[in-house]
Specification:
alpha/beta, 11 helices, D-Maltodextrin-Binding Protein, domain 2, 254 residues
Amino acid sequence: MNLKSALIAGVLAMTVTQSVGAAEITVLTAGAFKQVLLAIVPEYEKQTGNTVKVENDTVGAVIKRIEGGAAFDVVIVSPAAIGGLAKDGKVLPDSQTNLARVGVGVVIKEGAPLPDIGSVEAFKRALIAAKSVAYIDPASGGSSGVFVDKLLDKLGVATEIRPKAKLIAGGAVADHIANGEAEIGIHQISEILPVKGVTLVGPLPREIQNYTVYVAGIGADSKQVDAAKALVELLSGPNAAAVLKSKGMEPADS
């Protein structure tokens, strides 16, 4: 058993008891938290006998699916989105649990010269110098895309960048950097690290960094509340920090 598996198993031993009869739960999650789920779910399933179906999309798309009647046991989105779902009676009262936060980083193709992003002014120069810039399409509801779109206005470079922007409807911006569709990309760090063929230049300068917090809620109509709660307890437990770090995230209270 490797270190990551041992840590996960330790959390499960403390937080999860073997249920009588396996449960199947559905988790709807926004993009950036997907990698953490994929790392932890297999051990959860092994230890509990339960199965987990992970469905991934942007925050906006997840909310639309729930509003359209999609069934789920756990939803993992932003605090504002969870608040709206709670208000609409879609998640159980008092089931909201902070899980993690992730910052925004800059990505280039592996082997390309590293741009200087060590200051706000250097970051602006790097964007202006790039032939193309990729980020999530803000119209898709992705939190990083909405942030980047507003940041361009804040930095006064929107007129230079938007005409050469490669807007990504969903998925990992880094995939489009790896295949040469754009020279430089801006996305959440946890979405950059798993992609092969790219290099994480680093996080945005502290003065303009934006952290997205991910919060879990239990579905109000869930038939597997205990199994859902056990998964959320695992994801929010202290030993999950090692998995979060390996995926470019950190505990929400950091």
